[in-house]
Amino acid sequence: MPTSSDVAHVDIRRHLRVGPGPVDLGTIDPRSTPGLPGGKEVSRDPKLWSRGQVAAIGAHLAGLQERLYAAGKAGSPDRLLLLLQAMDAGGKDGTVKNVAGQMNPLGLKIVSFGKPTPEEQRHHFLWRIRRNLPGPGFIGVFNRSHYEDVLVARVHDLVPPEVWSKRYDEINRFEAREVANGLTVVKVMLHISKEEQKARLIERLTDPTKHWKYNPGDLEERKLWPRFMEAYEAALTWCNTDAAPWYVVPADRKWYRNWAIAHLLWETLEEIDPKYPEPEFDVAAELAKLKASD
């Protein structure tokens, strides 16, 4: 992996990956900064440091993304999916803007999943997910995902327990098949505290430019916070596989969130190590012909 002087390198996956066994989100501080390097530069102004780091990592991401895209054009099945789950105001949109925004939109597929449409409700819950997976060479970003069907569906009793309880195994089989076919999945739960969510919702109401982000239903969802945490812990526990592990990113500090997820993508793409395809023509001969042309 690169160790250029412009980027502080850490094994961020080791710090953020969910371990084996039951997950207890109460033991993970949403304001913590796992893997953050020490040093005066970081401690003096972590927000400024983070912006510089994300920009520097973005330069690496852009190069890796181009190699992935080129390899896909040549027939490589490799593709990557960043899957984001969080409570309301957890930072999904901000992550897309600040991290995915570092890459070339030509090779990106960003999908935001809301309440299923009538057409989607007529199909299996994974139907709309399959239709939106990134193709070979692409990086996909899911703002919410199939995990809504074991989170919202469970908390709000949209389907009986005997239905949603079977979905964990269905999800594991689905993800394993896609991984076997060239998909690398980076599943991230943005772990925000209830107090920070309240502050962000207040900001949406006091800033006219953010009124459009506010949903009165968010207050009703806050009342169900313990049930949502229970549902998240179940999803993190039962769908944390070697093929598609979960990462929990403490998300109260936006600057840390951006830095951590940029690092996750960088490390993951470096592990994929996409290669530019070899040309199927004689480069020297083509160059000679071009120079000799009018």
Question: Explain this structure to me?
Answer:
With 294 residues, the protein is α/β, with parallel strands linked by helices. It has a single domain (12-275), classed as Rossmann fold, CATH 3.40.50.300. It has helices spanning 12-16, 40-44, 46-73, 92-98, 118-121, 127-130, 152-155, 161-164, 167-180, 194-206, 217-222, 225-238, 254-272, 283-292, and strands at residues 79-86, 108-112, 139-143, 183-191, 246-250. The chain has a 5-stranded parallel sheet with strand order 2-3-1-4-5, with helices on both faces. Helix 3 (46-73) packs parallel to helix 13 (254-272). It is globular, with a radius of gyration of 21 Å. The N and C termini lie far apart (45 Å). Residues 1-5 have low confidence and may be disordered.
Task: Tag the structure with descriptive keywords.
Rossmann fold; 294 residues; alpha/beta; single chain; five-stranded parallel beta sheet
Question: How would you summarize this macromolecular structure in one to three sentences?
Answer:
With about 290 residues, the protein is an alpha/beta fold.
**Main sheet makeup:** 5 strands, parallel
Count of all domains: 1
**Mean pLDDT rating:** 94
Low-confidence stretches: 1-5
Shape: globular
- Helix percentage: 40-55%
- What is the radius of gyration? 21 Å
How big a fraction of the residues is strand? 5-15%
Q: What's the CATH topology name? A: Rossmann fold
Helical segment count:
14
Distance between the termini: 45 Å
How many runs of DSSP E, i.e. beta strands? 5
What would you call the structural class? alpha/beta
CATH architecture: 3-Layer(aba) Sandwich
Widest β-sheet, arrangement of strands? 2-3-1-4-5
